[in-house]
Amino acid sequence: MNVLEGDLSPPAGRFAIVVARFNSMVTEALLHGCCDRFVRLGVAEDRLDVAWVPGSFEIPLVARKLAETGQYAAVVCLGCVIRGETSHYDHVAGQAAGGVMQASVATGVPVIFGILTTESVEQALNRSGLKSGNKGGEAAEAAVEMVNLLAQIGPGGSLTSVPAGFGGGRIPAR
Ligand code: INI
Question: Which domain holds residue 66?
Fold first, then answer.
């Protein structure tokens, strides 16, 4: 059995982060957690580009445009949609999630969903660094893992370097 799994070794390339200004107290904390984790994983700040958008609804378009440039190994999306604050929560949260997924599948670039969807401000704060970790940091990890996984699968990866018909992949040490 061949097992493919991305690890957290330092990847090459640049990373884009799209972050919403709406609920900026939370999203700035997500951005801080995201950049901090990238740096800890070996991606220096000068390899990070940050694009601010008005709200989470605007994230997918900009994420897709950035992914289409071919300049980025991955795009991380950060936002915060709080149910208590909006009657159109379901639309904003749902469209943001669907759009992020579409941007990724359409471009073949990992586009990571780091948009908090919570019931309350308290939950949002807890998930942006207070009590329950920082979703921005988790998003940076997911980006690195996906880049390393795709490097195993895609051109030049171990799956493409074995003779046709062998179907083999690298079995990473666990
Ligand atoms: N945008 C968010 O990122 N989070 C929210 O909680 C939110 N609420 O509450 O409405 C929100 N709305 C703005 C939306 O994302 C767009 O910016 C706006 O509708 C303009 O297109």
Answer: 14-161
